[in-house]
Automatic annotation (TrEMBL):
Annotated keywords: Lyase, Transferase
Pfam families per UniProt: ChaC (PF04752)
Gene3D superfamilies given in the database record: Gamma-glutamyl cyclotransferase-like
CDD domains in the record: GGCT_like
SUPFAM superfamilies for this protein: Gamma-glutamyl cyclotransferase-like
Any one GO MF annotation of this record: transferase activity
Species of provenance: Halomonas heilongjiangensis
Superkingdom of the organism of origin: Bacteria
Single Gene Ontology BP annotation: glutathione catabolic process
GO cellular component: cytoplasm
EC number: 4.3.2.7
Protein's recorded name: glutathione-specific gamma-glutamylcyclotransferase
Length: 196
């Protein structure tokens, strides 16, 4: 798959004619909602787990030293918690550009966690970086992933901050994510990572 997914995402017609869309965030979208939204609600999806398996050359790393950011991997029976945003369709365009490094829109059923309507769910979309995208790095030992995250910096800041912001956001949601929390525990101290 081409590295720049902007055009592929614009071709999605699934929500044509809708005047609002639910967008599910499982990574930076949980703690960095720098786009207009009508409402946000904690939510989860079935059959996916969050993994730091996507390379970041443009936000949390560079082409020479990519960072690692979250994507989703299919796992039957799993649940992934995050944040759902009700947005106007035009909000997707800038997000397509911001997340152009391998992420494709994927239609998903999301389930709300805030108790306003037991078992309430909605169709929505998320951005997915699947293993066929050029920036996909895939599985590696947790220590190696943590080391890479500790060393990487990009235009959006240190990769470490991305991980720690996600940890805090998940704690605020009352969510346990063993993969994410294990990576945070393995992060070398900042002075060790910078060689000081
Ligand atoms: C997310 O938080 O869901 C997300 C953020 C950036 C790219 C893809 C997904």
């Amino acid at each position: 798959m081409t590295l720049d997914t902007t055009l592929l995402n614009r071709r999605m017609t699934h929500f044509d004619g809708h005047d609002e869309i639910w967008l599910f965030g499982y990574g930076s979208l949980i703690w960095k909602a720098d786009f207009p939204f009508l409402e946000r609600r904690p939510a989860h999806i079935h059959g996916w787990v969050r993994r730091f398996w996507q390379g970041s050359h443009d936000h949390r790393g560079t082409p020479e030293a990519p960072g690692r950011v979250a994507t989703l991997v299919r796992e039957p029976g799993a649940i992934c918690h995050g944040m759902a945003y009700r947005i106007a369709p035009e909000v997707l365009r800038p997000l397509d550009v911001r997340e152009k490094n391998g992420y494709l829109r994927e239609v998903i059923r999301l389930h709300f966690d805030d108790g306003q309507g037991e078992g309430e769910s909605a169709e929505g979309l998320l951005y997915l970086a699947s293993e066929d995208n050029a920036a996909f790095l895939g599985e590696a030992p947790l220590d190696a992933i943590a080391e890479q995250i500790a060393m990487a910096h990009g235009p959006s800041g240190p990769n470490r901050d991305y991980l720690l912001n996600l940890v805090q956001a998940l704690r605020d949601l009352g969510v346990d994510d063993p993969h994410v929390f294990a990576l945070a525990r393995r992060l070398p101290h900042p002075s060790a990572a910078s060689g000081r």
